[in-house]
Structure formats: C-alpha cells, structure tokens
C-alpha cells in the first residue's frame, strides 16, 4: 500500500492562482461575451525581447550541427551565463561571489519551494504575512507545521504581519526562529526593503544564528538606485542568507523558465550534535541529484539578457510595466482608493473599498468591472481586506481597467 504524505492533507484549499483561474472560468463560461481584463497572476504579457529571441534561434540552430550539439549541461549552469550574472548582478553592486556559489535553475518558485529540503523538520520557520504562498505550503508539505487554524495560519509557523503601520516591512521576530523568508520588492504588497530594513534582518540572523531566505525575483523593478538589490550588499549577509533571482519578470521568462539561487560558501547550518555543515555543499548535492540543468538554449537566452541590446530591451520592458503601475497608482489614487506598492514593484496593494473582504472585492471586480485581481487573503490572514492588482498587461487594458474599477465603486 502506498501510504501518502498526510501533511498534504493540512493544505488549505487549492493553490491560489489555479483557484482564481477556476473562478474566472466559471464566470466567463456564464458570460462568454465579457471582455475580461486579467490583472491577477503576475504573468508577463510583452513578447520576448529581440536580443533574447536571436540568442535562442542561434542556439537552437547550433544544436542541429555536429559542432554545436550538446548533451547534458553542467548542473549548476554554463559559465557563459554564470559569469555575466556575477559581473552584472553582483560585482556591479560591489558584491563579490564565486561561480560555484551560483546555481542556475528553472525557476525561483521551484527553488524557494525546494530550499526547505536542506533543513531539519523541526526547524522553526517565520514568514511575513501576507506572503508568497509557496514558502508556507512547501513547509506544510514537509511536515514542519501543525494544522491550520480558522484564519488559515498553520500551527508552528511564526507569522510576521506586514501592515500599513509598519510599511509592510515587519521587523525580525522576537520569538525563536531558525529560518525566515523575506521577499523584496515584495510579492504581494509591492513594498520594498530599505538598506536599514535589511541591515536589521541580517543583524538579527547573525545574533540569533538564524538563516534568511531572500527572494529578489522582482529586483529589476527597483527605481531608486540607492536601494539594495541583493541581500549581500549588507555586510555579514553571506554568512546568514540564501538569495533567489529570476529572469521571469525581469526579462519575460515566465514561460521560458530560468532563474538562479545563490548559496554562499560561508553559509552553514548545524547538525543535531552542533557540527557546522556547508549549505553550499548540501544544495550542490541536491541540485546534482535532482536536476539536470536548464536547457542550453534557455541559458543562452538568459545570457542574452546581459548583452548591451538585451539589457536595453529588457529595461524598456520593465519600464513599460512600471509605467502601468504608476498609471494604476495615479488613476485609482485620484479616485480615492487606498493604495500601496507600485513604486518599486509591479504590484499595487489596494485596500478593498467599503469594508469588503478580499474575496468579495475580487467577486465584485470580476462581476461588475470584468477585471481579475488577486484577493489579498489568498496570501495570508493579514492580507484580508486587500486585493493585489498586477501591472503586467498592456497599457490600453490597464487604462480600461482603471476606468472600470472606478465605475464599479462610484457611489
Ligand atoms: C504571482 O502572481 O504572485 C506570481 O506570478 C507567482 C509566481 O511568480 O510564481
């Protein structure tokens, strides 16, 4: 008999985005003529930049030649990608990392879900609330929690409420925690961590011997050059932090799939007996065992993001989405909606008007404005009373959505 992993049975409802997809399909089946504008899941809409397409085309054609054909690639990524990552994403910001500290993968969603495999099942986890659901659900699946309460909070996880009062950037926990997840620019609230915020987290981790998992999937959307992009811009972070980066939003790779995780060699965890063990070594072992590298063609595409043309073209795409975010902020803000985020992130975090719950606001916007957003409560109990609006769409749709949302709530 194949006994199941019963921790899966603790999971609340379905994964958020398929659940939204089901509700939207039910609506569109019943209203086939409705012109639905999707500002729900943060999925890119612009076509791949020409420099990236050209790199993929060249790499694909090379595969059809004896000289260009390749089989399995190096598990951690080809040098032609790892080198520009080190140079552009880190050295350019004063951070020195080695190539064997970078692990190229097929997505930060997978990496942020898989990374918890390195930690003991009794490790105490902290997350901000609201939070990207993958961090929580994967720890539930691994058996690191008890059941969920009526608010959907799992026993054993420390939730750090991210509220308007703390600028959606909570302080480190005061109770004992072993591993804490941070995401900046933040999904879902669109808040961004200041240098001081990150310094306080690194200082806390060093002091309490905790580990930070820093998700920087949205770093390309930071507009203020003084804000840190990497946790390693903070002194002492290499001994306490893992970082994740993605090409998904920065270069339109949600359907292409490429990302990377940084596990510095200075980073260690402890055995039950107190012996320190390199997390780089453990992640390397896991990667080599469970992963056979990102396809060559895709790594060539990712490397093209760092070429002069690729950099220019992908920055223009990010600027396009940020112009949408600013339009949402301006258009909805002028109509009196209470909004956060959208300054250094492609997400607007909007208070549901009229005291509506997140799902009621979602339903109203879908039914009356034919606009899909994401209910804030889907990201955690502290997200109740908010909805997230994504700036990933074309400008005409964003402008139309603004007009329709305003109309739906006009008194
Ligand atoms: C989101 O909408 O939160 C993201 O698209 C999810 C993801 O990146 O996996």
CA gyration radius, whole angstroms: 21 Å
Bound small molecules, deduplicated:
D-malate
Structural class label: alpha/beta
Total strand segments:
15
**Fourth-level CATH superfamily of the largest domain:** Type I PLP-dependent aspartate aminotransferase-like (Major domain)
Helix content: 25-40%
User: Major beta sheet, specifics?
Assistant: 7 strands, mixed
Number of helices: 12
Integer tally of domains? 2
Reading off the top of the CATH hierarchy, the class of the largest domain is best stated as Alpha Beta
Distance between the termini: 60 Å
Shape: globular
CATH topology of the largest domain: Aspartate Aminotransferase, domain 2
Report strand order across the widest sheet.
Answer: 2-8-7-6-5-3-4
Name given to the CATH architecture of the largest domain: 3-Layer(aba) Sandwich
What descriptive keywords fit this protein?
7-stranded mixed sheet; globular; binds D-malate; 14% strand; alpha/beta; 2 domains; Aspartate Aminotransferase, domain 1; single chain; 4-stranded antiparallel sheet; Aspartate Aminotransferase, domain 2; 411 residues
